[in-house]
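Tutorial, part two.
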Amino acid sequence: MSSIEIRNFEADDSTQFTTKDVRFNHNTLETPFKTLDFNDLGSLRDIASLERRWLDKNRVIEKSRNVKLDTFEKEIDRPDAPFLSESYDSYKRIPVLSNKLILNTLTLSFNPCRIPDYEDNLGNFLDIYHGRSDILFVPNIKVKEYNPDTSKSEVAIKTEDYLNYVHCGYDSLKFRNSKPIFVPVSTRYGTKPTEKLVTEMLDAGYRNFWFDLEGRASVSVTAQLRKFHRVVDRQGLDDKVILYGSNIKRERNPHRSDSASAASDVLATPLGFDIVGVNRDTQSPWIGGNTGYTPPPREVTIQHKGRLFDYHNYEYVRYADYPDSRDVLNRYGINVTDLNRRPKFYSTFANSFELNMEFERQKYAMQYDNSLIKYLGEKRSITDKILKNFEKVSPRRETPKVTLNDFM
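Running the prediction step on this input gives:
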């Protein structure tokens, strides 16, 4: 199994923000880093419309998907893996993408531990997955499921079973493997279960962690992240651990009627994420019946999906209302016709680079002021309440236990 080497580690004095040089298999990533988000790619032909010079500036593409039980059962005996080949094999055949790191992150929408012979079936599934992601992620499990009888979400898998599942998935992926492996930490448990999970995972030797936010805003998982950092700090592993976050809600509270919405994904780095992956909106359970819902006009939907990142205020703004929209679109070679046709994909492409540039500004602010707090506090969308989410966890390193005889 390939290990990841971390070099040039630097940490902010007042937030969880860090910078690292991450090296593996002749690849180097300078963190914080934002991947290219291909979740909303409509057709492979759309890739041809992207400017090569910008595609060459980002070597990492992520595609995320939820896997239902019927898909899992259907694919475990199909080595051609049609449900993944489109987002890996097809990409690799495109010359401009052939040398990129293509990552597939999966979230199981069911509890696999309930399946007969689940370890063997999981092993078969992951053997197929192994060849279709350049960095490996043990799939996350949605630990809460919707109960239509109570109209509430209920825990579907205990932490002990979740941990055993992670061990099983990791052991399957590491067999004759040369790729880095990330293990999931569910953000749906409380802080005490999170502490237990992280402690046991660190004790097992895991150092690469994946937080699947499942469509929630970054600051909504502050409590779990603080517990994560506290455990890591207690074991003195701050410069040995890599934290990957994906399926992050782009905005904290987006509304179609608003011209601008407060950004969420850009706040992942002061919370301690090293790599920021794809965006995803919250997926609510479908409740049948005639709800009387009337979809908004197409123009409203286009403007809502096609928002552009404004680093001055940490907001996503409708491109029609954003003063710099023409400059941003011209910078990345995006025409309005394409943007109107696939607003989420093309705006996300531009925003990926805008976020990476903002991460460089954050890095400079940390190095210049030794703190990001002042810089973040100047952003209009960040209130004092939000700012408190970034405060650094106080160190509580473990000390050796001394017996009375040793003391005497």
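Residues 398-408 have pLDDT under 50 and may be disordered. In part three we will examine how such features are distributed along the chain.
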